[in-house]
Design a protein that fits this description.
Pfam families: DUF6880
Helix content: over 70%
Radius of gyration: 31 Å
Shape: extended
Length: about 475
Amino acid sequence: MPRKPANETLAAFLRQQDASTLVDILLELASESELVRRRLERLSVARDGKRLAAAFRKTLSGWKRSRRYLDWDEARQFFKEQQDWLAQIERELLPVDPMRALELVEDYIASDAHWFERADDSAGLVGETVREACRLWLRCAACCETPADFWPERLATLYDHDEYGAREELLRRANLLLDEAHLRGLVARYEAQQDAILAAARARGEPDLPRGVFHPATAMVLLAEALQDPDVQVRATLRHSPQPNELQKEAFVRHYLEVGRPADALPWLDGPWQRHEDTRLRLRAQALQQLGRRDEAVLLRQQAFERTLTISDFRNWMELLPPLQQSAAVEHARAVARAWPDPVAAAELLLETGDGEGAQGMLVQRASQLDGRFYELLVPLAKKLEAHQLWTGATAVYRALLLDILSRGQSQAYRHAARYWAKLQAIAQLTPSLEPLCSHARFVAEVRRDHGRKWSFWQLADS
């Protein structure tokens, strides 16, 4: 019989306790925990929106008064606390008083400069928290009994004062609050703003595109997402970039495909995309597939695979092929891999197609081409080879990783080198021969000869 979840079991136990016992426990917890005390204070005023909002504002005011800079670890905890605060507002205050909930969240968003400037945001938590606050603002506004015409101006004003690029959700998700007519009204507002900026620049004879044009253009792109209307995005871009670059075209195409308009995507997929040609082939294949032009899509999938040899492109190609054609396609893919200049990519593809021996042979024959600096590729490959018991191939990879660290004297990586050394010893015990690689004994002798003075490594390796 399945066990009950821990929370369900605990809830059943608590319901059996008398009220005085629970009161004593809560008082004890409140005396030891600020979070528990605050929660009980809010519970005591749960039906009074004004007092409940005041309790939340007290916390927000405390955060805004603080000027102490938060390091990375402190920032993680701080913004987790802010995320909890936002969730509590939605859970406790929003059902009671949506307008006061909205005002609190708006105050938090308007204070985003304070959050960005006082914390190490290398983890991106500030932006993540502000974006969640923007989504909550929209949900709060949607619950307020306020005429619909009131919101576009207030929404645009809050967005327009964004100096850190974290308020984009206000427009991207504006459909949570505004109907299509009001969304298109905002589009018209930003179109007029963009046109005015461009006209003023032309009147001044400025040869370069004015920087101010990008704010309304970005707003229109975000509103295009809310409307699910790529035409707005295209219009916004072409106003300031009549000859869009490959990245801009890619954005158009992806949006058209997302909303199920592949025929409108195709014109933007004509011609080569230079460095982004692989992306163009993939997107064109996707568009053709949506249009039911399967045979053309198959050819493009194959072309993309032959250009990249990536497993994702191989899988995308295979999934479009009829079963009777897949066997021949696999053999073709293996032939492409055997001629590929990068042995790591080739070995990965051969493993994907079930040719483990071919992958191992590739790595052993071209062991000198394995660059240990690319450990993020080599370590997962070595693990796959071990899983398939392809010990010689795994040995070639681990040797490349080890020798790279030792040759460059990367002492901070010696603990990894010691792990590779242990792997090589374990593999040598499993297989008597590593041909055509040199024997493990000879390899060990050469490493000790060439790197014997790297004492900090040997302390780790021999321990």
